[in-house]
Design brief:
This protein is 26% helix and 5% strand. By secondary structure, the chain is mainly alpha-helical. A two-stranded antiparallel sheet has the order 1-2. The protein is globular. The model has no long low-confidence stretch (mean pLDDT 86).
Length: 156
């Protein structure tokens, strides 16, 4: 005999609010790279300095790369990424990111990696804090902070 559910009943997978402790451990391998700010990054920083935090709207922000971290820029297949980029946009500005000659980006990845198209503005809490920052919280959990109801804290 099968399970019979009325359309007025909540689905069987719905539960009360609960807490799930999560812990992750993994290793990221990055090619040799340097962290000196490029001229492209300096221009991007100047252009986006007044942009509010993508998550909470705070005005005191830092930049975070969205599609590609600087540490990985020399190990990306930029031609394949360029094909993917045709359908992509910056999640903060809504601007399409397919403005590049991807063969030139393959020669000099900073053209894209340090550009406004690859950056979002984040406050220190949503950027690097251990419990709420994009550097520490998996993206599916991190992004929930953007749209949570005022009386609910996903990462509290």
């Amino acid at each position: 005999m099968g399970l019979c559910i009325s359309i007025n009943d909540p689905p069987p997978y719905v539960s009360e609010t609960h807490i799930r402790a999560r812990s992750t451990h993994y290793t990221v391998h990055c090619p040799d790279h340097y962290h000196e700010p490029s001229s492209t990054y300096k221009k991007t920083l100047h252009a986006l300095k007044c942009m509010p935090c993508f998550i909470c709207g705070t005005k005191d922000t830092e930049l975070h790369p969205f599609y590609c971290e600087k540490a990985g820029q020399h190990a990306i297949n930029w031609i394949a990424f360029g094909a993917f980029a045709k359908t992509c946009y910056n999640i903060q500005t809504g601007e399409n990111i397919d403005h590049y000659n991807w063969h030139e980006v393959a020669k000099n990845p900073e053209l894209f990696v340090d550009s406004p198209h690859n950056m979002i503005a984040l406050c220190a809490i949503h950027h690097t804090s251990e419990k709420r920052g994009i550097h520490h919280v998996p993206f599916p959990d991190w992004i929930l902070q953007k749209w949570s109801k005022p009386d609910f804290d996903f990462l509290g």
